[in-house]
Amino acid sequence: MYSDFSQQRHLSSVPPLIISEIDEAHRLFNAGAIGEAEALCVHRLARVPADGKSMALLGLIRHQQGDNEAALRLLHAAVAAIADDSLYRCNLGVVLLAVGRYSEAEAALVQAVLLDPGFAEAHFNLGNILAMRGELSQAADHFREAARLLPTYYDAWVNLALVLEKTGRGEEAIQSFCQALAIEEDPAIRFQLANSLFNAGDRVQALDQYRRVASMCPRDAEVHFNMAITLQKLARYTEAELAYRQALVLTPYNSEVFFGLAIVIQSQGRFDEAIAFYGHCLDIKPDFILAHYNMGIALSETGRYAEAITRFMHALALDPENIKVINNLGLVYHAVGDFDAAIATYRQAIAIQQDFADAYSNLGNSYFDLGDYPEAFKAYQQAVICNPDFDRAYYNLGCYWQKQNQIDTALSMYRRAIALNQDMVEAHWNLSHCLLIQGDFLAGFKEYAWRWRRKETPVVFLPKPEWCGEWSPEASLLVYTEQGVGDIIQFIRFLPLIRQRVGKIILACETSLCGLLRSLSGVEIIDRQQVAASLELFDYQVPLLNLPAILEITLSDLPAVVPYLTPDSEGVKHYQELFDQVGGSRKVGIVWQGNPSHRNDRNRSCQYEDFSMLHETPGTVFFSLQKQGQQSVLTEGVIDLAPHLATFADTAAMIFHLDLVITVDTSVAHLAGAMGKPVWVLLPFVPDWRWMLYREDSPWYPTMRLFRQQRPGDWIGLFAEVRQALSEASHDDSRGCV
Q: What is the C-alpha end-to-end distance of the chain, expressed in Å?
């Protein structure tokens, strides 16, 4: 931030000389008739060579004429003639100061103050000398005394404020600037007042003062620049951008202005524009480290990782031990999946600064994503040792313990992170999952509302009030779906409960679900794409997954009556012949892979080959319900239904004909459960919250049986249990299989 105004008043090195009204010569001098005053002094000294008053006045005249040697001879003579006159010693000190003879000037001014402690100008000039020598505290004492003796002494208040600001006494400096401005308006001093307010943390008052200066000096670029910085600090980015752009108009080749403009544009999420402005900044100042650094961050935000690495490398070429740059370089390596390079980079930062908590935390994340959980844990612990109040480190420890299914410990870590940072969105989000997996639905669904503040959650804006559970028997309510298909199928069970509170329910869902969900009683189904054109149809709106919190659902009163979804009868008839071909064999549908874009798909999905140990089960025919994946891997005897699965209504019709569905955690599991069909769900060691822990049944679906990995990634052990259960079920006359 600029500390000086373009017309800044500095400490006065040569303040106005002080004279007395003694005779006609003094009158002429004060009237500006210097030549006539000089002639009278010369005439007087020709007759009275030792006249101290005449020598003193003539010394002032010689000083004004630039003849300081003559001025000093005359003023020394005047002081010798009248030794007890503080005025002469003060003027002598001023001239000595002008010629750089500071020690002698100080001695003369000290004598002036000793002769007349109430001489304001002497205190002021002595303060100037002390300030020039760096003795700011003593200088402040003399400026303060000058202002006390002469309350309208403008320069004394200004210089007092300046030295107070330099000594870190900002509040006192602000008061002194205000005193000066009460005497005389000066945009330069008001600018200094604004700077002092900014430095003291009073950004709102600083902004007000900058605006006042800008109204007086509209073409001063520094005013607009400092105003922009203040608005930026206040997070008023749109206004800050305008101020930076005004400064840029006035100084079009200023790298600092380009840099500031890029920052506020980046803060608004306009990364491509920010990158362009960082580029302009670097065209002017190629060695601007922070511009390289911030441009690297902006590039990484847009997924341009190779360019981001190049930019960070430029910054490191200028400052090889800049740990912030090294740390962010590690983040980019992590983002592209090069965890080994990320780990090496974080360790490079730690070697430079051994207590670098951020680097330890990020190091732990790279180990975590590599699956090396012991090393991740050690790094997270070290981050906490380096910074016991590091919210992100406690969050990461929560993730670690959650990964170990140690939910109580994970909860304590997330709560510690939130205690340090109440707005930590991801900590609240993970806290909700831990509460829900333990069956604490009241607290869990309350925390679940934090999903709307996550970056990856698309925000839906509808110009109708949000419904919060109030009784509105005459109102129409739009419930709109969110998240995945499995979530939608799971949560539509709550629609009958809210039907009692409103006059009409309209469910807006994805096109692929419309046919299936039309089987819901008392609910009108519309395509989500039609919502904008259907605003007149509803009075209130609510997201589907808000309903458990609104209804204050607990584990004990969870509605779990099935079936609540039924396939279309025509679809069931259409596929009847396909299943009749296999005769009386038990029909089992299988799914081995979920949505590949799901962040946890690599843990929750298995391989088709894992099902191979089930294929020899006697009296059983397997049908693939897999829509994604490689159907070419299907072995002989497994019937591929994928060509028939255009919509979820088709999938439901297929499931109707099956005796059992065996699936990993996918939407098919929810669909089979909602239809009341026997379904076995194969869960990873750390399951999604809805499947809870340590139980074989599901409170959500009565016909569901859960099979769990006993160790992370152990699909072989899990399928051995499934094979045994399927073999036992094959001897059962019924085909319930649950």
A: 70
Round to whole Å and give the CA distance between 630 and 178: 77
What pTM was estimated for this model as a whole?
A: 0.81
Q: Supply the pLDDT for residue 460.
A: 84
For 622, the token pair is: 């397997």
477 shares a domain with 412: no
Domain that holds residue 414: 390-459
Read off the pLDDT of each residue in 37-50 and give the average, rounded to a whole number: 89
| Poorest-pLDDT segment among 329-333, 434-438, 550-554, 633-637 | 633-637
Q: Of 520, 551, 582, at which residue does a domain stop?
A: 551
Domain presence at residue 579 = yes
- The letter for the amino acid at 87 is L
CATH number (domain holding residue 578): 3.40.50.2000
Q: How confident is residue 513, by pLDDT bands cut at 50, 70 and 90?
A: very high
Residue 304 covered by a domain: no
What are the backbone angles phi and psi of residue 658, rounded to the nearest 5°?
-90, 155
The CA distance from 659 to 703, in Å, is 12
Greatest Cα pair distance, the chain, in angstroms, is 144
Name the DSSP class of 631.
Answer: G
Query: Is residue 627 scored above 90 in pLDDT?
Result: no
Residue 159 and residue 48 in one domain: yes
- Beta strands 586-591 and 472-480 are unpaired
- Whether residues 620 and 699 share a domain: the answer is yes
Question: Do 246 and 240 form a contact (C-beta atoms < 8 A)?
Answer: no
Lowest mean pLDDT among 265-279, 285-299, 489-503, 600-614: 600-614
Q: Note whether 583 and 546 are same-domain residues.
A: no
Residue 4: pLDDT band (50, 70, 90) is very low
Q: Does residue 446 sit in the same domain as residue 545?
A: no
Q: How many CA atoms lie within 13 A of 488 on its CB side?
A: 21
Question: DSSP assignment of 176-233, as one string?
Answer: HHHHHHHH---HHHHHHHHHHHHHTT-HHHHHHHHHHHHHH-TT-HHHHHHHHHHHHH
Q: What is the pLDDT of residues 606-624, one digit of tens each?
A: 999 999 889 888 889 999 9
**Counted domains in the chain:** 4
Quick check: is 207 in a domain?
A: no
Residue 100 CB coordination number (10 Å): 9
Could you report the per-residue pLDDT of 412-421, keeping only the tens digit for each? 999 999 999 9
Instruction: Judge if 518 and 601 occupy the same domain.
Output: no
Return the structure tokens found at 419: 């205690």
Same domain, 37 and 160: yes
pLDDT at 736: 46
On whether the CB atoms of residues 163 and 144 are closer than 8 A, the answer is: no
Last residue of a domain, one of 135, 169, 203: 169
Q: b/e for 300-322, b at 16 or more Cβ within 10 A?
A: beeebbebbbebbebbbeeeeeb
Classified as helix, coil or strand, 237 is: helix
Candidates 66, 103, 69, 107; CA nearest to 89 is: 107
Is there a single domain that holds both residue 72 and residue 98? yes
pLDDT at 22: 54
Check: CB of residue 203 under 8 Å from CB of residue 226.
no
| Mean residue pLDDT across the chain | 92
In a domain, 323, yes or no: no
584 φ, ψ (degrees, to nearest 5):
-90, 10
Give the CATH number for residue 156.
Answer: 1.25.40.10
Contact in structure between 675 and 656 (CB atoms under 8 Å): yes
